[in-house]
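Team,

Forwarding the record for the chain on the shared tracking sheet. I've put the sequence and predicted structure together so nobody has to dig through attachments.
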Amino acid sequence: MAIPKRRGKRVRPARRSAPAKAAAESAAADTALERWRADTPGCQDRIHLNNAGAALPPRSVVEVMHRHLDREAEIGGYEAADEAASRVQEAYEAVGKIVNSRGRNIAIVENATVAIAQALSAFDFKPGDVLVTTRCDYPSNQLMYLSLAQRTGLVIKRAADMAEGGVDPASVGKLTRDPRCRLVVMTWVPTNSGLVQDVGAVGAVCEEAGIPFVVDACQAIGQLPVDVHAVRCDYLAGTARKFLRGPRGIGFLYVSDRALAAGAYPLYVDMRGADWETANEFQLARGARRFENWEYAYALVLGMGEAARYALAVGDVAFTRSRELAADLREKLETLPQVRIFDRGADRCAIVTIAVDGHEPEELKHRLRARGINTSVSDRVSGVIDFEAKGITGALRLSPHYYNTAAELGAAVTVIDELTRG
């Protein structure tokens, strides 16, 4: 009779204690931070707190652009574009993933303002038509609304804010019940504040009312999770240079399948966006590229694609870490008696706006820059309605990102204190 084999006792791996798990997670985070900073040559010699203006790009973004420019010089611009065709298409797909979309729904344009302009031009406004927006929309967008009002008779209606700041979705809902309402346009994150507006709630209102919804996400891309389907927007504008960490001078417009199927196209359609079929007829491109111009900067397109890929590899930690750093920065700044913080809203992001008693923001920006600290200034024209309500004419804007460190924030606050202490 066969003797059954004795089975050894199963050894279960020891459970990691909570302190050990926390230590391992902290070590992994430190390693990731070291890698991000090693990938970012610009952060070695200065503290960059101007990511809401133009973030420092990773080395790989710069290298991609340099390689393409070199090829243009070596073989010619058209020839280099042909050679890069597959990589250009990959850039569309990478940008699409940033907003949970496909490449065919992405139009590449010069910047987010051009993206918004292209979206607005798809509507044939008539006198008395209503455009609903917010009190915190991007200044360039507000100027476009005013220009449209003068030229077409469009009526601009700004929804009310909630008490804590940010647009009130109920107010938007009330305004969309006007039978003359043609669309709703709003900025997700204003340029002059750390406010995050509730685009999801407004998108739900627009969907229920059957009103097209246009979102300016230029400050959201790269620092907040963006899902065009959750937002329920018809158009969404983004830029590369800010929290996405791409090059300046390039951006994109997401166009929904619903808008494309309805035949939407920009007023000044280009030969990229349509084919000239007969003397008096044209045929639109099938995807969002109908909103593009034929000529664009291929090196920048490739750079934006690489920035999108880098952001996807970093993952959601970019969102959580940038917010945590901004919250830490606000806490540090609140200890300075000469500093006033002007961010409002129930939800605040990685933009911190302050005023310092007795010091002009522009002057302080340059003094900080001389000490190796990059910030920026939002003046009155960046947010007329918001700044008038706050009783200020400008603010110093500090915007950390995931590759910044707590030590950098502490150093920046120390310098601000030194420069402004009475």
